Amino acid sequence: MRQGANTVDSRLVSALAEWPVIASATGIASAARFVESDAPIGMLAGIGVRDLERVCRAVVDRRKIAFVNLDSSPGLGHDAGALEFLLDIGAPGVCSTRAAVVERAGTTPMLTMQKVFVTDRSTLQRSLDGVARSSPDLVQLMPAIVISQMTAADRKAMTPYVAAGFVTDRAACARSLELGAMGVCSSDPELWSVRRRSLDA
């Protein structure tokens, strides 16, 4: 969101306009399935540093976008060196729960996503403060079922956001989009090929 408040990177807008489900891929086999799927955007987790470059290259070769989950990548820390490594191997994006990491990544060409877990009003306020500070390209808001309990003002402050957690079927995808989510994240490969227009029907 470095272009200005509530301004979304055009690559994300274009991709999510047709394919609103972000593939949540854990491990090499799941990542390979994402690369071969219709989904233009994915989240990569559980992939060690030895394999990350190869996976990221495959993603880029298919003209896809992948956010590497820094919190769940064996061998990677949360320091500047980890971000430099991701930049060097051509990772399109990075994701973390840590606002400081996302803020630092925002100074690089990589796209950024901040994961936010909302369990009560106090964690919501801390999350709002963190997002305001880090200004990520996307917020991953978890769990999706909490979005309906948030005020319109709080949802707007998190925008642009994608819903994650308990997004298990097409109905859950549609509900999240109706509440203002730009997209959803799901580990179910059956949802990766869902087109937005099929949810609007």
TrEMBL record:
Q: In Gene Ontology terms, what is a biological process of this protein?
A: glycerol metabolic process
User: Could you name the domain of life of the organism this protein comes from?
Assistant: Bacteria
Q: Which Gene3D superfamilies match?
A: Aldolase class I
Pfam families (UniProt xref): G3P_antiterm (PF04309)
InterPro entries with a match to the protein in the record:
Aldolase_TIM, GlpP
Listed name of the protein: Glycerol uptake operon antiterminator
From which source organism is this entry? Antricoccus suffuscus
